[in-house]
């Protein structure tokens, strides 16, 4: 089912969306100070081309360190661009959800809305890895709560 949904997504949204994010990433990387934003755009592009079977999670959940200052850069991103990108994908998600057959594509748009709102410090991983990383974090929080 993931394969079929990715094909439908790619045909209707993914090709345009992935290319757009890639071009935005290239523009950001053309400026030295924009390289962190460009790298984040490339991550979103990878997610935007074929989102089904993938999830975007904080880098810390998979044992990676987020870039220093990623919170500050995310705030800057939200103020300048993130709000508008997130709004676009949220509205597209609502549009797809109006039809029953478009609901899976709408859910993917909502995931892209979440990803494009604050992309720095995030990683694209498979759904299985994301589920296990979240479960591990929950187990660690429970253990910490009961060992106090």
Task: Give the gist of this structure.
This protein has 148 residues and is mostly helical. The protein has helices spanning 2-30, 35-49, 70-97, 103-117, 127-147, and strands at 54-58, 122-126. The protein is globular.
Structure description:
The chain is mainly α and 148 residues long. It has one domain (2-147). The protein is 73% helix and 7% strand. The protein has five helices and two strands. It has helices spanning 2-30, 35-49, 70-97, 103-117, 127-147; strands at 54-58, 122-126. It has a two-stranded antiparallel ribbon with strand order 1-2. The longest helix has 29 residues, at 2-30. It is globular, with a radius of gyration of 16 Å.
Task: Present the secondary structure layout.
Blueprint: H1 2-30, H2 35-49, E1 54-58, H3 70-97, H4 103-117, E2 122-126, H5 127-147
Antiparallel strand pairs: 1-2
Tally of structural domains: 1
- Outline the biggest β-sheet: 2 strands, antiparallel
Alpha carbon gyration radius? 16 Å
The portion of residues assigned to helices is: over 70%
Number-wise, the strands total: 2
Number of helices: 5
Q: Distance between termini?
A: 45 Å
Query: What structural class should be given to the helix and strand makeup?
Result: mainly alpha
Element pattern in H and E = HHEHHEH
What is the averaged pLDDT score?
89
Strand order of the largest sheet: 1-2
What form results from the Cα inertia axes? Answer: globular
Uncertain segments: none
Strand content bin: 5-15%
